[in-house]
Amino acid sequence: MRKYEVMYIIRPDVEQETLQAVVEKFNAIIANGGEVIKSEVLGKRRLAYEIQKFRDGIYVLVNFNATPEVVAELERVLRITDEVIRHLIVRDDVA
């Protein structure tokens, strides 16, 4: 398994319960074949530019170990989730 980091931005108009459900959904996808090292909601922040008519977003950062198959599934689900307006998955290659 390799180390990865994913940061995704959730729409600022979601309820707290929806926010928790989205975070738990993505952590469950990672846990199904990988392991979540750290997951933290960084809170609402101003975006550098407007995305889908939103000026703010709720940032979530997750560090995890997983196989490439788990990462592909996570990428697929992130793309089709309506609450997520941007995401980025990077491999942590710190030696």
UniProtKB/TrEMBL annotation:
Keyword rRNA-binding: yes
A Pfam family annotated for this UniProt entry: Ribosomal_S6
Keywords of this entry: Ribonucleoprotein, Ribosomal protein, RNA-binding, rRNA-binding
A GO CC term attached to the entry: ribosome
Top-level taxon of the source organism: Bacteria
InterPro entries listed in its UniProt record: Ribosomal_bS6 (IPR000529), Ribosomal_bS6_sf (IPR035980), Ribosomal_S6_plastid/chlpt (IPR020814), Transl_elong_EF1B/ribsomal_bS6 (IPR014717)
Record's keyword annotation contains Hydrolase: no
Family: Belongs to the bacterial ribosomal protein bS6 family.
PANTHER family: MITOCHONDRIAL 28S RIBOSOMAL PROTEIN S6 (PTHR21011), SMALL RIBOSOMAL SUBUNIT PROTEIN BS6M (PTHR21011:SF1)
NCBIfam families to which the protein is assigned, alphabetical: S6
Protein's job: Binds together with bS18 to 16S ribosomal RNA.
Record protein name field: Small ribosomal subunit protein bS6
